[in-house]
Write a structure and sequence with these properties.
By secondary structure, this protein is mainly alpha-helical. It has one domain. The longest helix is centred in the first third of the chain and has 38 residues. The two termini are 30 Å apart.
Length: 174
């Protein structure tokens, strides 16, 4: 099970990286088209339709899909100024309480993102750009990313309880 969860988090991170690369390619293509049209008066379209919308959707997807892997690898900011001064047993309970609260809050977010997606499907919400994209599509990537973050937090909570020590290393910058 451990290997499967780690592969899921890593796969989401790779999809996130691909989205960042796709944004760079899309924006570069838009810049190239503008350059060719203005400098060489080339008979090319000067704008990729809805490129800003697509870039924004991919940025949101990459942000949310990267969160579980970033969390599990200790990349999120973890303030340990107070907990580092606590006795070891109190540190463990503080970690469990923090993970429990985070699991609750991310679970809450997952639920309401699901409600948002259902409403977007129900009302047929689409983006305002020249290419109307059903909003449930980019919202779904947000929901998947948040659900995976919730899973990663619950995973870490159970591991912390089982091992009786934190499983996520504190960030060096914190």
């Amino acid at each position: 099970m451990r290997h499967l969860l780690d592969r899921i988090y890593l796969t989401a991170a790779w999809i996130s990286a691909f989205m960042i690369l796709a944004i760079a390619i899309l924006i570069s293509a838009q810049i190239f088209l503008n350059f060719m049209t203005r400098v060489f008066d080339a008979p090319l379209p000067s704008t990729i339709p809805s490129y800003a919308d697509f870039s924004g959707f991919m940025l949101a997807a990459s942000t949310f899909l990267a969160m579980p892997y970033t969390f599990r690898s200790g990349g999120h900011i973890k303030v340990s100024l107070i907990t580092a001064r606590l006795p070891r047993a109190a540190q463990l309970w503080a970690e469990i309480a923090a993970l429990g609260a985070a699991a609750f809050l991310t679970g809450f977010a997952v639920y309401f993102i699901g409600v948002l997606i259902a409403e977007s499907i129900h009302y047929g919400d689409v983006s305002n750009g020249s290419v109307p994209i059903p909003l449930w599509i980019p919202q779904s990537t947000m929901g998947v990313g948040m659900a995976l973050l919730c899973l990663a937090i619950v995973d870490s909570l159970f591991q912390t309880i089982a091992r009786r020590e934190p499983v996520i290393a504190a960030s060096e910058e914190a």
